[in-house]
Amino acid sequence: MKYAKVEEARFLRRPNRFLAQVERMGQEETVHVKNTGRCRELLVPGAKVYLEDCGNPARKTRYDLIAVEKGDRLINMDSQAPNQAAGEWLRAGGIFPPGGIVRPEYRYKESRFDFYLEAGERKGFVEVKGVTLEQNGIVSFPDAPTARGTRHLRELRESLEQGYEAYLLFVVQMANVRMFCPNEATDPLFAGALREAAKAGVKILAMECQVSPSEMVLSKEIPILL
To answer: Containing domain of residue 19, as a range?
Structure first.
């Protein structure tokens, strides 16, 4: 997935989950943050950030904050990017052979999964989770307790009983990481549900991405430690 009209800025502060103050071209400006997570280890005063012009002059905030530099590592922190990049990867044959059905936002019973896949007699669901939390090359999810994520794992397990394949895809929004593990300290319920889902047959994948200020593309699978 690609962005247009990307500019550099310097992060100053974040008054709430949706907004940030940055310094752009010597002027302080309020921008929209495309990630409502905490991201405390990313958005630190003075960090170099990247903004995309939303292209809507009538909008209150002209720019979206989409990426940040953490040391020598560039991290995409746009919460919409993982699904967009995953969709491109799935259509290119990331899980099922290319040419089949890849349908986003698919409702199944009382659930809604990020993607429905179908190729020949195979059919399956994919739930996508974006990962921005990193320490010493190890990435983890979530950065805050997620009852929704735990529910998705239960629903994926239930779909197995109806003959579907089930996948949980962690899209790591950065490159050159060593492994993925669940964030047990922050959300032990999710970590436990993840292990149980894997035992039941849900396939757990973690893919790192090649990231530039204007692009994010799934690149390679990384090891998972459950």
So the answer is: 6-73
* Domain presence at residue 226: no
Same domain, 69 and 103: no
Place of tokens 């790192």: 208
Same domain, 91 and 160: yes
Tokens of 13: 């502060």
Task: Report d(CA 3, CA 214) in Å as an integer.
Answer: 5
Is residue 13 one of the residues assigned to a domain? yes
- Which of 29, 47, 73 lies at the terminal end of a domain, its last residue? 73
Residue 91, class by beta-carbon neighbours within 10 Å (0-12 exposed, 13-18 middle, 19+ buried)? middle
Q: Which of 137, 163, 150, 157 is nearest to 225 (CA)?
A: 137
Q: What share of the chain is helix, strand, coil (3-state, %, to 5)?
A: 15, 45, 35
| pLDDT tens-digit map of 202-217 | 999 999 999 999 999 9
